[in-house]
Amino acid sequence: MHATLPARHFHLDKACRLFRLNRSGAAVVEFAIVAPLFFLLIFGMIEYGRMVMVQQVITNASREGARRAVLDGATSSGVIAAVDEFLDSAAVNSQAAEVRLSPDPPENAGYGGAVTVTVSVPFNKVSWLPSPMYLGSTTLEAKTTMRRETVK
């Protein structure tokens, strides 16, 4: 097959081969330039994904606490225990979370009165990364307000 190719093709093939030999370190240099940006994007996606997940969990935890707080006989410790149980079952550290009730105790709200449960957690306490780059100083907060279901 080589016998049918013109001689100048062999010359071009030799030049291309020399060019490829001279580019032996180009991939390493290109990777060194692109890798930091790539890793920043990956860690950013992990961090923001975790933030959205924890925000949803604390929203649901505040809702569970408010559902418990509006019932007859509800106590502050019972509401906080319900929130902590929900956070622990969702793999969010309940020790890092702060739970506030308004009014405290919930039975101070009269018939049809509003009870608010607020759950807040510093993001650096629930991040999957050892040191959050973008959201380290952010505090996530969720608030749920419901009306008391007491009897007149």
From TrEMBL:
The chain crosses the membrane at residues 27-46. Residues 25-67 form the TadE-like domain. The keyword Transmembrane helix applies. Keywords: Membrane, Transmembrane, Transmembrane helix. This is Pilus assembly protein TadE. It comes from Blastopirellula marina.
